[in-house]
Design goal:
It is a single chain. By secondary structure, this protein is of the alpha/beta class. The chain folds into 2 domains: 258 residues, Aldehyde Dehydrogenase, Chain A, domain 1; 186 residues, Aldehyde Dehydrogenase, Chain A, domain 2 (3-Layer(aba) Sandwich). The chain has 17 helices and 22 strands. A 7-stranded mixed β-sheet has the order 15-1-16-14-13-18-19, sandwiched between helices. A 6-stranded mixed β-sheet has the order 10-9-8-11-12-21, with helices on both faces.
C-alpha cells in the first residue's frame, strides 16, 4: 500500500528513479537524443557504431504482443455498449508499428444526441443525484478497488494504444487513477453549503448544487489520468457525464468505464463516445442540452471549444491547454542533479506533456557544463518497444505528431540553433524519434522530445530580472521549474513567474489534492484538488423570512 501511495502521489518519484537507473545501465544506448543550443554552427553528434546498432535493434525487432484482450470498442450510452448510429468505425493504431489494433465505433452528432439524452434522463429522473452523498462515495471507492484488481489489463491497454512505457503506465498512471478516484470519493459527502447572517429577519442559505450534464473531452497523451481528473469530481458532485475520448486512444477509457458500471454506477450517468473533434467534439460543445464543458488539449482547439460553447447556450467551460514551460537552473545548482531533473522534465512521456519543461534556462556560469552533460544524458536515453524492460522512451503517438516534431527540429537548425545530438528518426518502423532545442521551437509548443537550452546571466548578488522577463515572454503560463539552493531565489522566482504551478527542485509532482491549470493562454480554471469541485457545482442562495426569531 505504501508503494502504491507513493507512486500515485508523486509521478516524478518513480520515473526519475527509473530514468537514473536506466541511464546508468545503458552502456549501449537504445537511441540518440537531440539537443539544440543557441548558436550559428551546426554540430551533429552520433553514437558510436555499436550503440547505433543497438538503437536500431530496439526499434526494429518484433514488438511484444500485449497479453490483454480488446473487449470494448463500441460507444457506451445509457449503460450499454452500442454501435454508432451511422455504423461507422475507425482504426486505433499501435504507434510502435503503425498497424491497426482494433476498429472502434465512430460517434458523430447523432450519437452525441443519444448520449446527452441519456445523461439528461439520468440527471433529471435517475437515482444518482438523489442518492445520499455517502452512497455515491461508496460507488467510487468500489470503482477504485476494481481498477487495482484489473491494473495489469488497464496498463497494457494504455501502453499499447498510446506508446508510453509499461513501467510508466503500470507503476504510476494506473495507481494515480485509483488514487484520484478515492480522493474524490472522499469529497462526495463533504460538499456543503453555508448559512449567511442577513441584515434583518431573514434566513439566508447558500447551496452548492450539481450543474447537471457535463460534457468532457480528454486528450491522447494521458487518457487514464484525464479520465480521473474530469470524471472523478463531476460524479462526486452528483452530475452526469458525456465523455468524448481522443480518437488516437479510445481503448483504456472504454475499459475503465465498464468497471465503473460494474461498481454500481446507474445507467446513463457516464456515457462515452469515441469519435473525431470536428464531428463528435463539435456536437458536444454546441449541444444545448449540455450544462458544462471541460476540455484538455491544444490552445487552438480550446479557443474553438470556447467559441462553440458561447454560441450555443453560453455553458461554462474549463480549459486545460498548452504550455511552453521554463525550467530555470541557477548558478548555485548541483549540475548533475539539475541535468537529470531537466532531462525528465522535457523527455517524460516522449515529450508529449502539456507542462513539459521544454525551455531550459541555464545560468552562464554553469551553462557549458550543463550542455555537455545534457547531451551525454540524452544520448544514453533508451528508445524502443515500451513493453520492454529498461526502455525509457516509446514511440510518438502517431505519424502526424512524428512528422510535426521533425519539422520543428529542422526549423531550429534553419533558425541558427546548434543541433548537439539526435533530432532524427530512430529505427525504420513505427513513430520513434530521437529527442532536441531552438529558436521558433523555444516559443511554440512542440509536444515532443525536444529540449531547448538557453543561456542567461545576472551579476552575483543582483536580481534575476532577465530570466524572469524571458521566462514570462510567452503566450503560455502552465508550469515552471526552478533549480537552486537559494531560498531567496526560489521565493523570488516562484512568485514572479506567471504560471499555474512552480516546481522547486522537483518536477511533475501531481498529487490528487494539488490544483493544476494555467495562466494566460494555458487555460481557464483548475483541475484536481478541491478546486476541481467548483467546476461542477452551481451556487444558489435561498432566502426566507424569519418570524418571532429567538436570535438572528
Amino acid at each position: 500500500m505504501a508503494a502504491r501511495r507513493a507512486a500515485s502521489s508523486v509521478l516524478s518519484r518513480c520515473l526519475l528513479a527509473r530514468s537514473s537507473s536506466s541511464a546508468a545501465a545503458a552502456a549501449s544506448p537504445g537511441g540518440k537524443s537531440a539537443l539544440l543550443g543557441p548558436g550559428a554552427l551546426l554540430r551533429k553528434f552520433g553514437t558510436a557504431p555499436a550503440a547505433a546498432a543497438a538503437a536500431t535493434a530496439t526499434t526494429t525487432e518484433e514488438p511484444i504482443q500485449p497479453a490483454v484482450e480488446i473487449k470494448y470498442t463500441q460507444l457506451l450510452i445509457n449503460g450499454n455498449f452500442v454501435d454508432a448510429a451511422s455504423g461507422k468505425t475507425f482504426p486505433t493504431v499501435d504507434p510502435r508499428t503503425g498497424e491497426v489494433i482494433a476498429r472502434v465505433a465512430e460517434g458523430d452528432s447523432e450519437d452525441i444526441d443519444r448520449a446527452v439524452a441519456a445523461a439528461r434522463r439520468a440527471f433529471d429522473e435517475g437515482p444518482w443525484p438523489r442518492m445520499t452523498a455517502y452512497e455515491r462515495c461508496r460507488v467510487l471507492l468500489r470503482f477504485a478497488d476494481l481498477i487495482e484488481q484489473h491494473a495489469d489489463e488497464i496498463a497494457a491497454l494504455e501502453t499499447w494504444d498510446n506508446g508510453k512505457t509499461l513501467a510508466q503506465s503500470a507503476g504510476a498512471e494506473v495507481p494515480m487513477l485509483a488514487r484520484c478516484m478515492r480522493y474524490y470519493a472522499g469529497w462526495a459527502d463533504k460538499i456543503h453549503g453555508l448559512v449567511v447572517p442577513a441584515d434583518g429577519a431573514h434566513h439566508a442559505l447558500v447551496l452548492h448544487e450539481p450543474v447537471g450534464v457535463a460534457g468532457q473531452i480528454i486528450p491522447w497523451n494521458f487518457p487514464l489520468l484525464m479520465f480521473a481528473w474530469k470524471v472523478g469530481p463531476a460524479l462526486a458532485c452528483g452530475n452526469t457525464v458525456v465523455l468524448k475520448t481522443a480518437e488516437q486512444t479510445p481503448l483504456s477509457a472504454l475499459y475503465v468505464a465498464s468497471l465503473l458500471h460494474e461498481a454500481g454506477l446507474p445507467d446513463g450517468v457516464l456515457n462515452v463516445v469515441s469519435g473525431f473533434g470536428p464531428t463528435a467534439g463539435a456536437a458536444l460543445c454546441s449541444h444545448m442540452g449540455v450544462d458544462k464543458l471541460a476540455f484538455t488539449g491544444s490552445t487552438g482547439t480550446g479557443q474553438i471549444v470556447l467559441e462553440l460553447a458561447a454560441r450555443s447556450n453560453l455553458k461554462p467551460v474549463t480549459l486545460e491547454l498548452g504550455g511552453k514551460s521554463p525550467f530555470i537552473v541557477m548558478d548555485d545548482a548541483d549540475v548533475d542533479q539539475a541535468v537529470e531533473l531537466a532531462h525528465h522534465a522535457v523527455f517524460f512521456n516522449q515529450g508529449q506533456c502539456c507542462c513539459a519543461g521544454s525551455r531550459t534556462f541555464v545560468h552562464e556560469r554553469v551553462y557549458d557544463e550543463f550542455v555537455e552533460k545534457s547531451k551525454a544524458r540524452a544520448m544514453k536515453r533508451v528508445v524502443g518497444d515500451p513493453f520492454r524492460n529498461g526502455v525509457e522512451q516509446g514511440p510518438q503517438i502517431d505519424e502526424e505528431q512524428f512528422k510535426k516534431i521533425l519539422r520543428y527540429v529542422q526549423s531550429g537548425v534553419d533558425s541558427g540553433a546548434t543541433l548537439l545530438a539526435g533530432g532524427d528518426r530512430a529505427g525504420n518502423r513505427g513513430f520513434y524519434i530521437q529527442p532536441t532545442d531552438d529558436m521558433k521551437i523555444a516559443r511554440e509548443e512542440i509536444f515532443g522530445p525536444v529540449q531547448t537550452i538557453l543561456k542567461f546571466s545576472h551579476a552575483r548578488g543582483s536580481g534575476v530580472e532577465e530570466v524572469i522577463r524571458r521566462a514570462n515572454a510567452s503566450h503560455y503560463g502552465l508550469a515552471a521549474g526552478v533549480f537552486t539552493r537559494s531560498l531567496d531565489a526560489a521565493n523570488t522566482l516562484s512568485r514572479a513567474l506567471r504560471v499555474g504551478t512552480v516546481w522547486v527542485n522537483c518536477y511533475d509532482v501531481f498529487d490528487a489534492g494539488i490544483p493544476f491549470g494555467g495562466y494566460k493562454m494555458s487555460g481557464v480554471g483548475r483541475e484536481k484538488g478541491v478546486y476541481a469541485l467548483r467546476n461542477y457545482l452551481q451556487t444558489k442562495a435561498v432566502v426566507t423570512p424569519i418570524r418571532d426569531a429567538a436570535w438572528l
